[in-house]
Structures are given as structure tokens and as C-alpha cells.
Design goal:
The complex is a heterodimer of chains A (340) and B (320). With 340 residues, chain A is α/β, with parallel strands linked by helices. Chain A has helices spanning 58-65, 92-98, 120-132, 136-149, 155-158, 168-180, 198-215, 226-229, 250-255, 260-267, 308-312, 331-339, and strands at 14-27, 30-43, 47-51, 73-82, 85-86, 103-106, 186-190, 218-223, 235-240, 243-249, 318-319, 327-328. Chain A contains twelve helices and twelve strands. Chain A has an eight-stranded mixed beta sheet with strand order 6-7-8-3-9-10-12-11. A four-stranded antiparallel beta sheet of chain A has the order 2-1-4-5, with helices on one face. In chain A, a hairpin with a 2-residue loop joins strand 1 and strand 2. Chain B has 320 residues and is mainly α. Chain B is built from eleven helices and no strands. The chains are: A alpha/beta (340), B mainly alpha (320). Chain A binds chain B through residues 63, 66, 68, 70-71, 95-101, 105, 107-109, 112-119, 126-127, 130-131, 150-151, 153-154, 157-162, 164-165, 175, 178, 202-203, 206-207, 210, and chain B through 1-5, 7-8, 11-15, 17-20, 123, 209-212, 214-222, 225, 229-230, 233-234, 316-317.
């Protein structure tokens, strides 16, 4: 599934295509931009990793696709096409059919993302009854199958358990089962392993990988942990302050990161070969606050390669690889590539 | 490279399925005070419903040859200064207390829950107006309001009804007991709803921002389903507890108003007006005070034990 960039352009079919999406938050000092004209796309059968630090707009972008943004945060510009339809302009009732039916969501915190007073069998059955028109008995059978699919021991007996009777890893499996209930074309996983310990994280990643191959769906996996998803995704988008700064096939990104921010991220992953006395590398400074974005490149104040132009203009995401598959939004990186 | 863990026999034996309510019932049964409270409440409710049909005497029938008798087998709680059976009057007073408590709590919960849920759900200006109304209502001293309503509305209504009776000779207009009840219900409901509104608003506000609500929305469920199956059941526990406590409070409040003569008026028996009557002669006939006072105390304590027990039982994570 790797090296997606060598596939001919024609065989790809866009499933999700986000163009110029801008998200603003209302503050006392007026609206502040959180996500700044982001462009994203996911092809059919493709797995996209979205990487970025906390608060860079990863989750909000995904929530905004389904129009699930919290109060005071809203989309002000841009469009999001899913299977040829604009999600932002769709009627509420059509959108509800997409939610859960065609796009499955897995949330960050399995401890609080399940209804505590509803048995998990019922929670699994809910989308099946609503989207697939199943009877209660059919939905219960299917719910049992789904729990088996996500590897929950004693699946059928567990249908009658309450969320608090399951461990965190088991609950995340239930969440995945709920996300997959209606065989969605796209599964959006919003940091699904953040609340779990390391061995469980690996299990969940492998589970999603296996299910993706079995069910042939597209996956968007949001994370701040580059290493975790290296074996899972086809392509990675690196987000910084609400913009995509680098978009590359996973191999290319790890082998040859071009944006200074991506380089910083990769350098900050601890390696086994490091000496115990080596300090972990980090990127100095903090990301810009919403409403206080610099005029030029948002990374400029923290960038080791910063030049005068970076403070004046915002670089656009330009294709630089052979097929244009490796794109970067950095004046310095672009100039280097042109020179090469 | 499947890493889905292999099912081991040890992991499959799960405890038998229990519903939230059955689970809560099990926990409630383990709590002795709550069981005591529940038993007393059930007995009182039964008494309120069927008691007046089972008592040996009518609560109004006077026997002037048997005044102020001490408790005996024929008169369990003795008789009062008009020779009426005190036991029968306490039983009928239970009906009065329950009727007032249930109707008042029902109205108060209805007003409080709808206002609170709307305020919490829609927020904004509506929320501000509702909360302003709540604060304003809470600032009214309840006793003063009841006195004012009694003083201002009771006599006009009574005289209007008297006039109607003289004109139409319809016996409906002679029956003035329900005017008491109407005034008591009305004024008490008017001052009892704010706590429910605040509670439900706070519940809805906190539940609305929980991740499982977003998760339910992401599943494409309608607002109605989310409200009925996700928001309301999660808000129900505290509300049930508040209702249980509220019933007890309403009972005590009714007795207090009747004690002061602004609630249910004689000859309709209420624990409150019986206590008031008994207080004048307690040195000579202590049973006239003791009987209604003891039942009132028991009822109040029972409701509060039950409310506490429900509070513990309805929280699935509080399981010991």
C-alpha cells in the first residue's frame, strides 16, 4: 500500500477533497483564524496521516467536515467535497446520512466518548437501526459480529456490558466497531490512541490497518506521533498553525523531509541509538496564537532557516517531486529544489 | 500480521447482564437506611391512597361524649377535643400531605425541567431570561408569598363563589375545600420550581459538551434521539434524587403553612393544622401533638434517606 506516488494519476479517485477551508473562532477581540485556507484530499482506498502539534487545527478540521464544530467556532470559507457532494452546503438531513453512514469517526478519548448509561450493544445497534433500517434483533446480531471483528473477547456476552465495565483498550475497540458499523467509505480516526498505553496503541494501529485492508475503506488518521503511523499510512500531511506545510508519501517524508518544521519533528523522535546523555532535540518557541498570526509564513518566528521573504509573504504548497506528489510550503526548500 | 488478541477462556466469563435500573435497585437494597425510607414512603403512599377507606371512623364525625381520650385499642391515637378519632385524622392528613406534595412537585418539576432544559440546550438570551426569572423567584420569601396570596385571593374567590351559589343554587359553589388546595398548590408550585430548573440546566450544560454527545452526532443520530437517549438518561439520576427530596420538602412545607393557618384549613385534616391544634393543649393531652408530629417527622426523614440512597444507587461509577 505504500509508495502511492507511483500510481498513475488517472487511477485515483478523489473521495474527500477539501479546498481553502478556513475556520475562525469568535473571541472578545473579534474573530481569530484557527485553520487558514487548508487544502486536503483523500483518494479512495488511501490512508492519510495528519500530523501536527496540539492546537494546530487537526481535530477541528475533521470535525468541521461533519459540521460538528463547538459553539463560537465556525467555517467561514472553503468547501469540502465528499464523493462529489459539498458537505458544507448539504442539508442537515442529508448530512446526518453521511455522518456514521458513509463517514465513521473514532474519537480521542474512549473513556468519555461512549454514553455511560447505555449498554455497548445498544450503542453499536443505534447507527445500524438508523442508517441501515435494521430491526433490533438484526442490529444486535450485527453488533455481536462487529465486536468479534474488532477482537473483543467474549463479544456476544459483552453486548450487555456498560462502558465502565470495559478497559480503555476494549472501549477504543468498541469505538472502532461503532465507527465501522455501517461500512463507511471513510474512517476518520482522531488521535484514537492518545489515551492508551504503548502496547495497546500498537494493537489499535494494527487493528485499523487490518480492518482497512479487509473492508477497503479510506482512513484519515490524526496524530501528533509520527513514528506511530509510519507503517499505517500511505501519505502524510504535516499541519502547522492551521495550514498544510508539507504533503508527501510516507517514505519520501521520512527519507527526505523538506520543510524545516517536519525536519524538526522528525529530529525530536527519540532513537534507540541515542546516547543516554544526548538531549532530545526540540523546536524552540511556540506556535502562534489564533488571532496573532505572523504576516508571512506562520513558522517563520521559530524557523532556523528564516529569511527576509518569510516574514513578508505566505509560501504556497508547491509540488516538487517528479509527479508533484511531494509538496512543501517553504520558500527556502522550494529554492533549494529548483537549484538542484 | 494480525495482532488481534486470541480469546482466552478466562476472559470470556463475564458477569450476567444487568440493566442500569436493576443495577441501581441492587445497590439501593444494600443500603439499610434507604430501604427503611422506601418502606416508610410506600406505606405512607398506600395510606394516602386507601387509608381513608380503611379507618374505623370518619375523620369528621364528632363524638362529644368521647372527648380528649387517651390512646386505646378503640382509638389508636386517642380522640381530640371534639371527640374525633385522631388516627383517622392522621390517616386523612397523610392523603392531604401526599396530594399536595405530589401535585406541587409534579407542577414544579414540569416547569423547572422544561425551563431548565431549554435554557441549557439553547443558551443565549433564552438562558439569560430563564436564569433571571429563576433568581427572581428564589428571592421571594416563600412564606410571605403564601400569606399574600391567601390574603389577597382567598376572600374574593370565596365571596364570588358564595354569590354564584346564591344565584344558581348549584352545590358545586358551596364546596370551598378545593379553593384551599388550589391556593396551596398554586403558591407552592410557583416557588418550588427554581431548584429543578437550575439542576436540569446545569446537567444539560455539562452533558451537552461531553464527547459522547459529539460522538452521537458524528453517528448521524437526530437531535431528538440524542436528547432522549443520551442527554435525558444522563441527567435523570440527579433529577430523581432531587424529586425524592423535593417530595419530602413539599410535605413539610404544606404542614408548615397549615400550621400557620395559611395552608389547608380545618376541618380538612392536615398534619400541620393538627399540630397547631395539639400545641395549645399539649401539657394536658400530649398525644394530640405527638401523633401528627411523629408521622410528619417520620415522613420527612424517610424521604431524605430515600433520596440519599437513590443518589448513591443511581451513579453506576459509585459502585462499591
Amino acid at each position: 500500500m505504500m509508495a502511492n506516488d507511483i500510481r498513475p494519476e488517472a487511477s485515483r479517485e478523489r473521495l474527500l477533497d477539501v479546498k481553502g477551508l478556513t475556520i475562525e473562532i469568535e473571541t472578545r477581540r473579534g474573530p481569530a483564524t484557527i485553520v487558514d485556507g487548508i487544502d486536503l484530499h483523500v483518494d479512495k482506498g488511501e490512508t492519510l496521516g495528519i500530523v501536527g502539534e496540539s492546537g494546530c487545527g487537526k481535530s477541528l478540521t475533521m470535525l468541521s467536515l461533519m459540521r460538528l464544530l463547538p459553539n463560537k467556532i465556525r467555517v467561514t470559507q472553503g468547501e469540502a467535497n465528499f464523493a462529489g457532494r459539498d458537505l458544507q452546503k448539504m442539508s442537515n438531513s442529508d448530512l446526518r446520512k453521511v455522518r456514521g453512514g458513509e463517514v465513521g469517526f473514532i474519537f480521542q478519548d474512549p473513556m468519555t466518548s461512549l454514553n455511560p448509561v447505555m449498554r455497548i450493544g445498544q450503542q453499536l445497534a443505534e447507527p445500524l437501526i438508523y442508517h441501515r433500517g435494521m430491526s433490533k434483533a438484526e442490529a444486535r446480531n450485527r453488533a455481536g459480529e462487529l465486536l468479534k471483528l474488532v477482537g473483543i473477547p467474549g463479544a456476544v456476552e459483552r453486548l450487555d456490558a456498560y462502558p465502565h465495565e470495559l478497559s480503555g483498550g476494549m472501549r477504543q475497540r468498541v469505538m472502532i466497531a461503532i465507527g465501522l458499523a455501517c461500512n463507511p467509505q471513510l474512517l476518520i480516526a482522531d488521535e484514537p490512541t492518545t489515551a492508551l498505553d504503548v502496547t495497546i496503541q500498537a494493537q489499535i494501529v494494527d487493528l485499523v490497518k487490518e480492518l482497512r485492508d479487509k473492508l477497503g475503506m479510506s482512513v484519515v488518521w490524526i496524530t501528533h506521533d509520527l513514528a506511530l503511523i509510519a507503517g499505517l499510512v500511505d501519505r502524510i500531511n504535516v499541519l502547522y498553525a492551521g495550514t498544510v506545510v508539507e504533503d508527501a508519501p510516507v517514505d519520501a517524508l521520512f527519507a527526505n523531509p523538506r520543510h524545516p518544521y517536519t525536519q524538526g519533528l522528525l529530529a525530536s523522535i527519540p532513537k534507540l541509538s541515542d546516547q543516554r546523555t544526548t538531549r532530545l532535540s526540540s523546536i524552540g518557541g511556540t506556535p502562534p496564537e489564533p488571532g496573532r498570526r505572523p504576516k508571512g509564513c506562520p513558522f517563520a518566528p521559530r524557523c532556523p532557516l528564516v529569511e527576509q521573504i518569510c516574514h513578508e509573504r505566505v509560501p504556497s504548497l508547491e509540488g516538487t517531486g517528479k509527479a508533484g506528489a511531494h509538496r512543501v510550503a517553504c520558500f527556502v526548500a522550494q529554492r533549494k529544489l529548483e537549484a538542484a | 500480521m494480525s495482532v488481534v488478541p486470541v480469546t482466552t477462556p478466562a476472559e470470556t466469563d463475564v458477569e450476567p447482564p444487568v440493566s442500569l435500573w436493576r443495577d441501581a435497585w441492587h445497590r439501593l437494597r444494600r443500603n439499610r437506611l434507604a430501604v427503611f425510607g422506601l418502606m416508610v414512603v410506600v406505606i405512607l403512599a398506600f395510606t394516602a391512597a386507601f387509608g381513608p377507606y380503611l379507618t374505623p371512623y370518619d375523620f369528621l364525625s364528632q363524638d362529644l361524649s368521647a372527648r380528649n381520650l387517651a390512646p386505646s385499642m378503640s382509638h389508636l391515637f386517642g380522640t381530640d377535643d371534639l371527640g374525633r378519632d385522631v388516627f383517622s385524622r392522621v390517616v386523612y392528613g397523610t392523603r392531604t400531605a401526599f396530594l399536595v406534595a405530589v401535585v406541587v412537585t409534579f407542577i414544579a418539576v414540569l416547569i423547572g425541567v422544561s425551563l431548565g432544559a431549554m435554557a441549557g440546550f439553547f443558551g443565549g438570551l433564552l438562558d439569560k431570561i430563564v436564569m433571571w426569572l429563576t433568581d427572581m423567584t428564589m428571592s421571594i420569601p416563600n412564606l410571605l408569598l403564601v400569606v399574600v396570596i391567601n390574603a389577597s385571593l382567598k376572600s374574593p374567590i370565596s365571596s364570588w363563589m358564595e354569590g354564584r351559589y346564591l344565584v344558581t343554587l348549584n352545590p358545586i359553589y358551596r364546596e370551598t375545600v378545593w379553593v384551599d388546595f388550589l391556593l396551596v398548590f398554586g403558591s407552592m408550585a410557583l416557588i418550588s420550581w427554581p431548584p429543578y430548573a437550575r439542576l436540569v440546566r446545569a446537567q444539560v450544560l455539562s452533558i451537552r459538551s461531553r464527547p459522547y454527545i459529539t460522538a452521537a452526532q458524528a453517528l448521524g443520530l437526530t437531535n431528538r434521539i440524542i436528547l432522549m437517549r443520551y442527554v435525558v438518561p444522563n441527567a435523570l439520576g440527579p433529577l430523581i434524587v432531587a424529586v425524592s427530596a423535593g417530595l419530602g420538602t413539599a410535605m413539610v412545607l404544606e404542614s408548615a403553612f397549615s400550621f400557620l393557618g395559611v395552608g389547608v384549613n380545618p376541618p380538612t385534616p392536615s398534619w400541620g393544622n393538627m399540630i397547631s391544634d395539639g400545641l395549645r393543649v399539649w401539657q394536658h393531652y400530649p398525644h394530640l401533638l405527638a401523633a401528627p408530629a411523629a408521622v410528619l417527622g417520620l415522613a420527612s426523614v424517610a424521604f431524605s434517606f430515600l433520596g440519599d440512597g437513590l443518589n448513591d444507587a443511581l451513579n453506576p461509577r459509585g459502585a462499591k
